[in-house]
Amino acid sequence: MSNVRRIFVIGAGTMGHGIAEVAALRGLNVTLYDVKQEFLDGAMSKIKWSLDRLAEKGTIKSSSEVIQRIATTLDLESGASDADFVIEAAPERMEIKRDIFSRLDRSARPEAVLATNTSSLPITEVSESVSAPRRGRVIGMHFFNPPVIMQLVEVVKGKYTSDETVKATYELAGALGKQPVLVRVDVPGFIVNRVMARFLNTACLMAERGLHRMEEIDAAVRYGLGMPMGAFELSDYIGIDVLDDIIKAMIARGFSMTPCGLYSGMRSAGKLGVKSGQGFYAHP
Ligand code: CAA
């Protein structure tokens, strides 16, 4: 049983808006923060779209009942001040996370858990941007896209994370209807991304080297491994920029792999996958 009643979600992008939706679906009050009103407006439309799908299927009565539990703000300090649990889902850059966590250190309640949804950056490094007494309250809480559908939450213990914080995060994941898995060692990419980055990168290298066409690799993955999406479909879904950041962050911290050259070229050309309308495939 989780004691959390009010969640503050930082970042209204793909993951942040999905996490806010999951929390509101489970009856929690949520405040969603981003730096521009247009990001918050875009997030609220996506949440409404998703809730409408659930309402059509009869999973919920109406989207408006859930949406009313989500407030939005452009003020990080006031959003943090009354939250029991904070989940940061900002872009995957350490300097951004450090800035956010040092601001949370000054504005969040002392007992609030400060979680990061980072997919590849070390929790210990993030927690070093808060003052020593608070470091035990910093933890990784890594959701998967789309959060409303994917069951897993990786709960990542950093060097300073207290057992009490792990317990509170497990309880919250359970209250959100998710399956938590403990990541005991704070290694780059945790569990899933260490497996997935190598898998997607290998598929990409095969196409880059002209060994197979991406459509053939995707069909083989779908029908041979029973995955819901092929490797290139999944890369587009995750976002080429996100994937590129994950792979770079893992390599920078000693993970050994040869990155597929197509990612950085696609990134500079703005071919980011589903969100930009073009990635490996076209997404009209
Ligand atoms: N909200 C509500 N409903 C949604 C939804 C959303 N955001 N997304 C999909 N759905 C619903 C659809 O409406 C549809 O419902 P019906 O069956 O009733 O029509 C159903 O889910 C299936 O969706 P689609 O028909 O559009 O497509 P699909 O069958 O391919 O399912 C998918 C979509 C659930 C995303 C599925 O393809 C899938 O599971 N893909 C793999 C996703 C994955 O691996 N995610 C992890 C990525 S890694 C990550 O996130 C971590 C990281 O650090 C990068």
From TrEMBL:
Its EC number is 1.1.1.35. The keyword Oxidoreductase applies. Keywords: Oxidoreductase. It is an enzyme of class 1 (oxidoreductase). GO terms for molecular function: (3S)-3-hydroxyacyl-CoA dehydrogenase (NAD+) activity; NAD+ binding. GO terms for biological process: fatty acid metabolic process. Residues 189-282 form the 3-hydroxyacyl-CoA dehydrogenase C-terminal domain. It comes from the Archaea. The keyword RNA-binding does not apply. Residues 7-184 form the 3-hydroxyacyl-CoA dehydrogenase NAD binding domain. This is 3-hydroxyacyl-CoA dehydrogenase. It comes from Conexivisphaera calida. The lineage of its organism: Archaea, Nitrososphaerota, Conexivisphaeria, Conexivisphaerales, Conexivisphaeraceae.
